[in-house]
């Protein structure tokens, strides 16, 4: 009788050990799976590129805004600096298309229909390009606003082209700047000022 009891107790002990071993294996597998998931999440987070702080660019974004007649006029542009360089005729070649700023193409928005240098322009946003020259500049409003620089410029999408005359400045302007005045949009950089007239019906 005693031998049977001892055998029974030994069997219970073996079953208990087997159960503990199984639980330990399950816990180890579970821990490994959790760690693997966490590692994958960390790697995914690391792979995501942080959003660019555009204000830290060498040519930071700027905005010029004002009212001309009944229209709100807004210019968004990247503002490059001279940094000791000769600009017009050197860095910015004459008679070549220019983004009129830096980085993304400069844009100009009109809240209502306007006249630009005597030509009708519908309300909306346009990419602003120019062709600088020693005696004349060509102002261009282009319908493709989603451009980086002038690399994808397509003349067939022009909404307007107009010629204007640049004016010399007595003092150099270090960083490109735009201003919206009472009847014109003006840019200044280095020793040059260029404006184009804007008006509304009333």
Automatic annotation (TrEMBL):
Q: Does the keyword Metal-binding apply?
A: no
Q: Which InterPro entries match?
A: DUF2911 (IPR021314)
- Where does the UniProt annotation place the signal sequence? 1-24
Acidic residues composition-biased segments: 38-52
Q: Which UniProt keywords apply?
A: Signal
- The regions listed as transmembrane in this protein's record are none
Protein name per the record? DUF2911 domain-containing protein
Report biased composition (Low complexity) as residue ranges: 24-37
